[in-house]
Design brief:
The complex is a heterotrimer of chains A (509), B (244) and C (238).
Chain A (H helix, E strand, L loop, with lengths): L1 H23 L14 H14 L1 H4 L38 H10 L15 H11 L4 H5 L17 H13 L3 H4 L38 H10 L15 H13 L14 E6 L19 E4 L1 E2 L14 E8 L3 E9 L16 E7 L20 E7 L3 E7 L5 E3 L8 E7 L2 E9 L16 E9 L11 E2 L3 E5 L6 H29 L1
Parallel strand pairs in A: 1-4, 1-14
Antiparallel strand pairs in A: 2-4, 3-13, 4-5, 5-11, 6-7, 6-12, 7-8, 8-9, 10-11, 12-13, 12-14
Helix pairs in contact in A: 2-5, 4-5, 7-10, 9-10
Chain B lengths: L8 H18 L6 H20 L2 H16 L6 H26 L18 H4 L12 H20 L31 H10 L24 H15 L8
Helix pairs in contact in B: 1-2, 6-8, 7-8
Chain C lengths: L2 H19 L4 E2 L6 E9 L9 E2 L4 H4 L2 E2 L16 E4 L4 E2 L7 E7 L2 E3 L2 E5 L3 E6 L5 E6 L7 E4 L5 E5 L4 E6 L7 E7 L4 E3 L5 E7 L2 E9 L3 E9 L4 E8 L2
Parallel strand pairs in C: 1-6, 2-20, 7-10, 9-15
Antiparallel strand pairs in C: 2-17, 3-4, 5-16, 5-18, 7-8, 10-13, 11-12, 11-14, 14-15, 18-19
The chains are: A alpha+beta (509), B mainly alpha (244), C mainly beta (238).
Amino acid sequence: MRWACLILLMILLTPSTGWGQEKGASPGGAGAPPAAPSPQDLQAGKRIYQKWCMNCHGAQGDGAGPAADFLRPRPRDFRQGLFKIRTTQSGQLPSDQDLFNVITKGMPGTGMPGWEKVLTEAERWQLVSYLKTFSRRFARASAPPEPIRIGTQLPLSADSAAEGKRLFREIECFKCHGDEGRGDGPSAPELTDDWGAPIRPANLRKPWTFRGGHTPEALYLRLQSGIAGSPMPSFADSLDNEKTWHLVNYVMSLWQDSSGNNPPLQVVLKARRVEGEIPAQPGEAFWQDQEPFYYPLVGQVIREPRLFVPSVDGVQVQAVYNDRELALRLVWDDPTNSKADAEQGTFEDAAAIEFPVQVPPGAKRPFFLMGDAELAVQLLRWGSSSGMTELNGNGLDKLQPQSESSQESTAVGEFQNGQYQVVMKRPLRTVNTAQDIQFETGRFIPVAFFAWDGSNGETGGKMALTSWFYFFIEPALPKVTYVYPALAVVIAGGLQWWVVRRLRQTKMD
Amino acid sequence: MNTRRGIPLLVKFVAVLVGVYVGVRLVRPPLPSSLVMMYMTLTVCGVLVYVSIYAETWQEFSAPLVELFRGSPERGGLWQGGRQVVLGLIPLLLGFGVYQKVTPSFTPPAEQRVVHPAPPFEVMGLTNPLQQRPDRLQEHLELGARVYFQNCVYCHGDRFDGEGHFAHGFNPPPANFVDAGTIAQLQESYVFWRVSTGGPGLPAESTPWNSAMPKWDTMLNEEERWAVVLYLYHQTGWKPRTWE
Amino acid sequence: MRTWLVVLGGVGLLISAAAGSSLAYEGAAVAEKGRVSGIVKAAGKPPAPKPIEVNKDQATCGKSQPAESLILGAGNSVKNAVIRLTNISKGKPLDTAAKVMLDQAKCRFVPHVVIVPVGATLEIKNSDPITHNVHTFSIENDPINKAQPKTVPIIPTKFTAPEIVKTQCDIHKWMGTWIVAADHPYYAVTDDKGQFKLADVPPGTYQMEIWHETLGKMTKEVTVKANAEASVSVELKK
């Protein structure tokens, strides 16, 4: 027994000693910026900058490196000393720690990665020192900036969120962030950053894209400090501690998942069988009960013309079927409701689902970007002006709508508060078997998704996309699934009864 | 053996089983479930041998079980109720186990993908022409950096680790050049071939239909492609493999 | 799209040039006083900007807003040009205790160009029942961006260095103003008739700078005599 205890103790201690060592390895933690950088520090910072930062932020810190034109938001121009993520008042410079934190963690939703894995803590501090040489404002500042004090936190509650919602209207957050927070407010399309480049207000329902993270403290600080260089002002004059927390709580109440993390990627999109008619209206309560699958979309940067700054960053899909038809509900956020207009040179918003025409028996399948010469794909595409269209593709430049008579899909689409909701329906089997995929249950069918935001100049090959995932139409469960367990219960129960009887008999003997 | 006082043998039996199970599960890296199953079977057999080796121990071990099944009229109401529940649960648990077994689990087919397929013969002998001009290294690296940051960075990332801001949209994920398993293993000619022909240039065993790697020879000229290969090795610190 | 950048750069150049040439200003009682008066005109016929169509908050902002980037009066006279002496080092004291008002009324900054002494208080007021934001594009002064909902009637602001600061409201894109932070009292803005006046100027020969947001800037020499008025007429070319 003593041995067992000793072994258990050793097992329990192993991980904890490991933790202890890890902590000990970084003396001082991340809270100790160097007092004054030496010329050697600045030299080292410059070398690091030239190796890792210059190609986006420019050799002169002007935010005009070779990648700059292909990124949105653009890399920061350091010369004005304007930094988005600060713990200081509007008009003040960031603290050294603020700069260090952004270098360490990166900025979600942008091209700025975190450098923790690449640069040591000392190197990141050297980089902070060097960055500060790009703006005269740092040298001019006589005292370090004063941090914003975060007062006592009000916990998230329905009452607090409701008060936050009232404030959201009173101080007019909705002007940019939209009535439901999707960044689709009336002022949103005209916003530019301090350098004149278009900029978008945050979609408050996608906290995983918040540049400074989505902790309650981070939200509090953004409201109090503003986001320098962007149209987001400081609300320090209008929001006291309590009101700020109410607003933070309201924003957090908008999140589908209270952790604020991005929805998990599911490789298989499942279509569940339902009995009877499937509602065609995307707003029907029916759809709230169907399992959602989320797919992140990225720019088409594979074939010319390429799209480096896509507008739609993800689509939520739900799928059900009955004995006749398949129904797919697509939901995606797009801040503008664009229509095709040849005179204005604007394009419609659209989304599409792609399947191979023939579901391949082996691993082979069409190229995910609209098929290839050998294997064709079918697209079910809904556009805000053109409605539902079935297309076939043998490559990005060989995409043709099917003939009128072969168009068997229908769709109902709505746009509201920065969000599209579209229900597409197609018969499981069609007449045009040469061009249409025939849906069968129990098979893994390759599927991919596309979205176009017309007001972002997206049309044709300029789109946001995914590569292949799987679509699976769940077959009705075979009867044996219920018969075998029932049989097992009966047999086990009988055996047990027999054992009990036997034992009682022996006792009597 | 004299009847021991203290912990009943049945409890010890269960404790040993639980202890061994937890111990086996704590092993890192985790053992495969078949091996765990084997260890547990061994343990059960061993302990059963131990308890059945003497009539007394067997008696001590089995008595509570026998009592449970047979029923014991002199026990209290709580015990009686517990017995009913246990006897009811056993067949139900078995039924649930069978249900788990027979329900079809839909898992997508495994991707059998060859990561570094054999290159076509004609690219194997190529050498990077830019290596011949060490005097113009800086210029070539600048060209390579420009090409990388205008074309590759979205997927392969600022850190060259395949974690660019578009990387999460693609399966298979973009190559991680920092990893010892990619360009560190390859010759410059091979990397040049992958850059030039991209996903569509892959042989069937590498599932070209899934790869988002563009066919760069239509968008970048030869010098630009060699320059970006040069830049990749320079930036990551790897040395290209050469013919031994 | 890059106009702000250009404007910003232009203002920056202007300021750095000014910073190089001007000396620290010293305030004292002025014994002999001269005056400068003048008129600013635009050369040629610069096209007048079109009124801006309002697409939000029409209840407060109306259906259209006048474009204030160039306002020409009779005889091509230019409103809202800024006049200042660049090389004056001694003169009447700068009123750092002053309170200058910049109002946001019916979705317009009033006045369109406001002079505030360095160290004095600019009271930024919101007279509208809606939210505006005050976003400054400055280099010598700390750039601010502060929201001003109707619940915040006044935001007091101070400037620490001479600079012409482009200021805008992002929520209402047409709303722009120029805050002129002045390091001495010899600054003026032209009125409807393109006229301006500088009073209590110590006799001497000065460099005078004339700046306008769309017409650019020029400098002119002016000689001020005691108890006399120097008259200046300038033409700004774009």
